[in-house]
Specification:
binds uridine-5'-diphosphate-glucuronic acid; binds nicotinamide-adenine-dinucleotide; 17 helices; alpha/beta; 14 strands
């Protein structure tokens, strides 16, 4: 049984994943190393640098026992028997494949550091989401220069979603482990299976070859994002025809073959992964001579951009074709509820479009105000306000962009009383009851639902 685990990358995946491994394997020493000293210090102090419900308690329970965070990656590599690589793999912004391919520079630096500093046979586990056949490239890096050193590369993609990461890690639908079909590859896979088997039922631990595991991760995200774009496409037809997207989603979601999950129409998917992974998949398809397949997946992203633009177009249209000088309260900036993460949040594009219309925006969010401030910068036209009542005070309209449960509990009568007339409410998440709001006096426009207006 493995005694020393290292994870390189203390982000949204590395931190929570290792905290759960440390919890269930108290006899295993787990170290999470990162080049970002500030992040490391936050984790090590027991105040995680990311907001994730339930995370802090799990980290604190193992800190000082068998969980440690370190800013010194190299000596940790020398000690480790199993190394998870959980560094960021964002979309490349330069050179070949810019805007589509994955930027593998952090991953490659990590591979080279492992090659240089490993001092014992080591199992390297790809946790980051990577293009298919990256494990092969990693093996090549390892084999050059240190042929005597034994490295075995596994793929173990992570399927957790932010906001529910702890439950996803505790009770995963499945754990996927890909390895080489050689005796050494199979032995390495057994070691990793043994780690997860401490708390995950065996039948939920799936094994595959490395390429299948790598591709399954991209495919899973592509399928999930495709469902969101599909329901959003239907929401556009609903708005034109008077059909209601909630009724349509219920009607199709009760078909067992379709299922009810991921059928919530909204302002489009955000987050650091859906768009990046689909674009990466499309890029791979092109590299492998499959342009039709690439176009198919790209259309999921195109529809997602359209959904954000459509939301603002509707706002401009119903607010008498001008937003110039009008105050808009933006309820929610995180890409989904229960996270402070603003990476690729639909709110970014929507706020930019509102500013292009010369609106004055006041953003409120329970967790993501710092992220919003960093992305948009404060100015005369953009303000940030923790209290939603203050944000809506004197506003012409509310644009609800994140599905925070607390927005359901607000006193909309009070909010309405403090707003300009006519007061508009654009529910970009179908979070609120449009009929109630209409009775209060709002002109309500919800995604894929009939307008409720007094105008
Ligand atoms: P993140 O940016 O939050 O964390 C990555 C960390 O890696 C950063 O703290 C960074 O400082 C560190 N790092 C980068 N280069 C390093 C190096 N050379 N040495 C040491 N540390 C280094 O990213 P994340 O959201 O945790 O995602 C990590 C990977 O997991 C990505 O490939 C992503 O696609 C995948 N993933 C993310 C999620 C999610 O919900 N965020 C879910 C599943 C999979
Ligand atoms: C997603 C996947 O769900 C995870 O399995 C995966 O591990 C992760 O990406 C990753 O690879 O990073 P995440 O992005 O954290 O997780 O959150 P989701 O719950 O999938 O939501 C993504 C976006 O889609 C959010 O903006 C959300 O609001 C939106 N969404 C989701 C909808 O608009 N409608 C839905 O019905 C579901």
């Amino acid at each position: 049984m493995i005694q020393r685990i290292l994870c390189i990358g203390a982000g949204y995946v590395g931190g929570p994943t290792m905290a759960v491994i440390a919890k269930h394997c108290p006899d295993v020493q787990v170290v999470v190393a990162d080049v970002n000293a500030e992040r490391v210090a936050a984790w090590q102090s027991g105040e995680p640098p990311i907001f994730e419900p339930g995370l802090r308690d799990v980290v604190r329970a193992s800190l000082g026992r068998n969980l440690r965070f370190s800013g010194d990656v190299e000596p940790e590599i020398a000690q480790a028997e199993m190394i998870f690589v959980s560094v960021n793999t964002p979309t490349k912004t330069f050179g070949q494949g810019a805007g589509r391919a994955a930027d593998l520079q952090h991953w490659e630096k990590t591979a080279r550091a492992i090659r240089q500093h490993a001092r014992r046979p080591v199992i390297v586990v790809e946790k980051s989401t990577l293009p298919v056949r990256t494990a092969e490239a990693m093996e090549r890096i390892f084999r050059t220069r240190r042929p005597e050193q034994r490295f075995e590369v596994l793929s173990n993609p992570e399927f957790l979603a932010e906001g529910t990461a702890m439950a996803d890690l505790e009770r995963p639908d499945r754990v996927l482990i890909g390895g080489a079909e050689t005796p050494a590859g199979q032995a390495a896979m057994r070691e990793l299976v043994d780690v997860y088997a401490r708390w995950v039922p065996r039948e939920r631990i799936l094994t595959a070859n490395v390429w299948s595991a790598e591709l399954s991760k991209l495919a899973a995200n592509a399928f999930l994002a495709q469902r969101v774009s599909s329901i959003n496409a239907i929401s556009a037809i609903c708005e034109q025809t008077g059909a209601d997207i909630l009724s349509v989603a219920r009607a199709i979601g009760t078909d067992r073959r379709i299922g009810p999950e991921f059928l919530r129409a909204g302002v489009g998917f955000g987050g650091s992964c859906f768009q990046k992974d689909i674009l990466n998949l499309a890029y791979l398809c092109e590299q492998h001579g499959l342009p039709e397949v690439a176009r198919y997946w790209e259309s999921v992203v195109t529809l997602n951009q359209y959904q954000k633009e459509r939301f603002v177009q509707r706002m401009v249209r119903v607010m008498f074709n001008t937003l110039a000088g009008k105050r808009i309260a933006v309820f929610g900036f995180a890409f989904k509820s229960n996270t402070g993460d603003t990476r690729d949040s639909p709110a970014i594009r929507i706020c930019q479009e509102l500013l292009a219309e010369q609106a004055l925006i006041c953003i409120t969010d329970p967790q993501a105000l710092d992220g919003a401030r960093q992305l948009l910068g404060a100015s005369e036209r953009v303000t940030f306000e923790p209290d939603p009542y203050e944000a809506a005070d004197g506003a012409h309209a509310i644009a609800l962009l994140t599905d925070w449960a607390e927005y359901r509990k607000l006193d909309y009568r009070r909010i309405h009383a403090a707003m300009e007339r006519p007061a508009f409410l654009f529910d970009g998440r179908n979070l609120l009851d449009p009929e109630d709001l209409h009775q209060i006096g709002f002109n309500v426009y919800a995604i894929g639902r009939p307008d409720r207006t007094n105008l």
